[in-house]
Design brief:
By secondary structure, this protein is mainly alpha-helical. It has one domain: ACP-like (Non-ribosomal Peptide Synthetase Peptidyl Carrier Protein, Chain A, Orthogonal Bundle). The protein has 3 helices and no strands. Helix 1 packs across helix 3. The longest helix is centred in the C-terminal third of the chain and has 19 residues.
Length: 95
């Protein structure tokens, strides 16, 4: 498991599983459709990822499908890390 997936998995387990909840979650465990993450939790997870990785995930991209598994969340973060990296590398020329 790569570092990004581990960070997401650890955050989800720490923030959304109640103490004593013995459910095991993995990279492809349904988080939203499985009842682990609700819409409010999805927003807090999005904000965590945006702060942690200095990215902006547009609301239109932050769909329940995109946030349903650790794998799909990691793909979304990777997509916007690449986008953010490109925008920071642009140098503007003077007049």
């Amino acid at each position: 498991m790569d570092e990004l997936k581990k960070v997401i998995l650890d955050y989800v387990a720490k923030e959304y599983l109640e103490e004593g909840d013995d459910r095991q979650i993995g990279e492809d465990t349904p988080l939203i459709t499985g009842g682990i993450v609700d819409s409010f939790s999805m927003v807090s997870l999005k904000r965590f990822l945006e702060r942690r990785y200095s990215i902006q995930i547009p609301d239109a991209e932050a769909t329940p499908q995109a946030f349903d598994t650790v794998t799909s969340i990691a793909e979304l973060v990777k997509k916007f890390r690449k986008t953010e990296g490109r925008s920071h590398g642009v140098q503007h020329q003077g007049p």
